[in-house]
Structures are given as structure tokens and as C-alpha cells.
Amino acid sequence: MTLFFKDLIAVAASVVMTTGVSAQSAKEVVGPSPLVAIENEPAPKLYVDPPLSEPLSRGLVFIQYRTENLRVVPVFGKGALDVSPRIGHVHITVDDAPWHFVDASGETIIVVGLQPGQHKVLVELADPTHHVIDSKTVHFEVPVRP
Q1: Residue 72 burial (CB count, 10 A)
Q2: Is the pLDDT of residue 33 over 90?
Q3: Which residues contact 120 (CB under 8 A, 6 or more apart)?
Q4: Sign of the CA dihedral 130, 31, 106, 141?
Q5: What confidence tens digit (pLDDT) does each residue in 117-131 have?
Q6: Burial of 125 by CB count in 10 Å (0-12 exposed, 13-18 middle, 19+ buried)?
Q7: Is 92 in contact with 103 (CB distance < 8 Å)?
Q8: Between 11 and 115, where is the model more confident?
Q9: CA pair distance 53, 55, nearest whole angstrom
Q10: What pLDDT score does 23 carry?
Q11: Which domains are present in the chain?
């Protein structure tokens, strides 16, 4: 066997051993299969990060969030309450506005056009009938731009 092939085999074996030790299963990363009902589902949880700093420095508010025990999808109404695994969406309220907008994409929340200064965004996790399950508020400052 040539030196090249011996080195190639050694690298391949190292990659297999390394990835096998630290790899997570699909279920550990994405959660339970949406094809099987879950008995006694745990309560949904909402996790919201502060705005990403680089876009914020340009006056753009990008807020990442994630959920546990609830899939964010664009399905609404009383009939969707019986879906398992549980589904829902988020309500977003900016600076105590008397209205909110709904997002069912599960993607980063984007708010643009805020004046420089202190702001807050309320993110509410809601079921398909808009009943709020969990909520988090993010406080931040939009900087003055030159």
C-alpha cells in the first residue's frame, strides 16, 4: 500500500471515530417525530435571544428564538388543538403597541424602521387559537447611526 492510501485510511478512520463519539441523533436535535402522537406532552417553552449585534449596529433588529415541545407552523383554529406533537405560532409586540403581528414561520424575527433609542419586543408563544402559552421580552437599544 502506498503512503498516500495509508494516510487516507488513517484520516478516514479518525473522522469516523470522532464523529461517532460526538454526534447527536436526529431525535436529540429536532425532537420527536411529527408522525407519532406524544402521550402526556411536556409544557411548551419559549427561548428568545437578544437581537444580533451586527445588524442592530445598522438599525436592523434580528431576534432569533426557538421552542421546545411545540412546532411553529401556519395552522390555526380550534381543531388544531388536538394535533400531536403540539403546534402553534408566535405573537410579536413592539414597544407596547396596542397591536401585534403573528409569525408562523419559526424563523428569525425581523423588525426595521425603529428610531434610535431604547426599545422592547414581546414574543408570545401561542396555541392555534391564539391563547398565549409562554412569553419573553427582549430589551435593547437601537444606536444612533452616522
Answers
A1: 20
A2: no
A3: 94, 95, 96, 137, 138, 139, 140
A4: positive
A5: 999 999 999 999 999
A6: buried
A7: yes
A8: 115
A9: 6
A10: 83
A11: 31-142 (2.60.40.10)
